[in-house]
């Protein structure tokens, strides 16, 4: 009993303290709540959250405050917090439809689609006129690809509330996304007539007009939106994108500076400002802007790709900023290694070394990965690079100084170089007196083309950046020469003409689509000889490193499709040397057709090679593989020896795989036969469906943002 009285006394003291603080501040829970609602109106979700928390500090049973705090968490992408706040709200609002509807929306964001559907269907069972539940089911239908189902839900909502702004805007967006322009404009005019003073309506109208490429109308709607609400950042951003499309780069830079001055954490403003500076020819300023933007948001991969493409094409290799730019990739590589992802680590170390070739940490780590894969010649080559670079750094020092300054690690490295140089004296390359790293191994010329990026993309110029980045990641692949046409093409015909006139074997049309949480690379591959479509895929990525992972898959996908070919670079009797080896995953026992020089061409309608049977000079069975070259035993075709160096070799069969063999070559069918028949096992890149992921239309992010 005494304990109870004591506790009551404590609560009285706490109550008096809070009350005294409240009166001293001059604000009640209701006052803070009203401030939170006002902040919500301006989409200032952080400030609104603080006000609602202040209200709850004063009144811990304020159910409205819990609900609105949950709304703020939802808008900020903090979906677990949203659910937690809804748990509190539900204590005081048993069976509340608004609480259940928001819970369903949060569950959608957490990919818990079946749970969300149960909630919305339960709400409609008891409240058939509940519009928010219909919106939830419409979103689920969009995620499932059932666009017609979503349209039906929005129509049902409009039957119950003919002027509902979200239903009208959603119908307009869905129609525009499906290319139903007249229908989209019909609903858009209705919502503009009903909500002429609503800034969000005008902003979304700008997005819809942009989707229809009516940029003049889009710009008008953006300007109306910011006249109504001078703090509407998304409308300023869209206006900047529209001005960018018009080539008004000075306007874009001014708009971005305006946004940055208001909020220095807007990484999207830094990206767009840098893009405008780059387009105007001020690459140095763009690099500085993107560098600042990446400090705010290091995970903006499109901005990083833009920066690195600009750096590698314009900035001196001695620039002191290169170590800073490379550090991101070194950290990413270390992250991959912690997850035992050696291939991911290799890719990131390669990216780091492209930016900063003299980075010792990255090069040693890269070399170690090569050694672990059995690529000892390539490993030695990396160590020699470091040694040569070290000697260059000490070139101006007095004689002997460099040696005296060597660290224990450098001495160990030199010992390793000496040991490996002795061990590698008996390689195939040494036996044939070939310097493999100077071989011209280019087998394929590929052109990459893109069209203009739609204004509504998260990153303006994303198609261009994607095309340039796709080309860039092939730069370390010796067997390909991949070039990007710098300007957008008008379409397939324009790309075909350019590819053919530039002597390409194949050309690829690239486009991208990105949402807030995912990224899709769409590509179609064509024959530059005939213009025939050969392959296409949509490669999907989500979470961190989605951009890099998609492009890595793209590179692997293209390389898997290309026929395996090589050149004869040496001969001793019936033994031939080919410029292909373990680095290209060649296995002993693989068989090649030897075809006379210039006797091979790409297939007309398939990915493969064709050549006349009369041009086949013999077959070669691989007996020994080096890292970059391989040796094989020749069988003549006919009675005459007609084989010369520079004749070509085409893979026609591979040995059966056993448990000890596992390589990309052994895992795929031959790339071509004498009649040009392509492989039936060409691997297609992973799509969202392959991964069991629902990929929503890009406009769903806009629909979900409508408050």
Question: Which descriptors apply to this entry?
Answer:
five-stranded mixed β-sheet; 707 residues; 29 helices; six-stranded antiparallel beta barrel; Rossmann fold; single chain; Thrombin, subunit H; alpha+beta
Mean pLDDT equals 86
Q: What proportion of the residues is helical, as a percent range?
A: 40-55%
Radius of gyration computed on alpha carbons: 31 Å
Q: The CATH topology of the domain at 444-561, please?
A: Rossmann fold
Can you describe what's shown?
With about 700 residues, the protein is α+β, with helices and mostly antiparallel strands. Among the domains are: about 310-395 and about 405-425, Serine Threonine Protein Phosphatase 5, Tetratricopeptide repeat; about 445-560, Rossmann fold, CATH 3.40.50.10610; about 565-655, FlgT, C-terminal domain (Thrombin, subunit H, Beta Barrel). The chain is about 55% helix and about 10% strand. The longest helix is centred in the first third of the chain and has 24 residues, at about 1-25.
Provide a short characterization of the protein structure.
This protein is α+β, with helices and mostly antiparallel strands and 707 residues long.
Task: Produce the secondary structure layout.
Layout: H1 2-25, H2 29-41, H3 45-58, H4 63-75, H5 79-92, H6 97-109, H7 113-126, H8 131-143, H9 147-160, H10 165-177, H11 181-194, H12 199-211, H13 215-228, H14 233-245, H15 249-262, H16 267-279, H17 283-296, H18 301-314, H19 322-338, H20 342-355, H21 360-372, H22 376-393, H23 401-404, H24 408-423, H25 428-431, E1 444-450, H26 462-472, E2 480-484, H27 492-501, E3 506-514, E4 518-527, E5 533-542, H28 546-561, E6 565-572, E7 575-578, E8 591-595, E9 601-602, E10 609-610, E11 616-625, E12 630-636, E13 648-653, H29 700-705
Parallel strand pairs: 1-2, 1-3
Antiparallel strand pairs: 3-4, 4-5, 6-7, 6-13, 7-12, 8-11, 8-13, 9-10, 11-12
Helix pairs in contact: 2-3, 2-4, 3-4, 4-5, 4-6, 5-6, 6-7, 6-8, 7-8, 8-9, 9-10, 10-11, 10-12, 11-12, 12-13, 12-14, 13-14, 14-15, 14-16, 15-16, 16-17, 17-18, 18-26, 19-20, 20-21, 21-22, 22-24
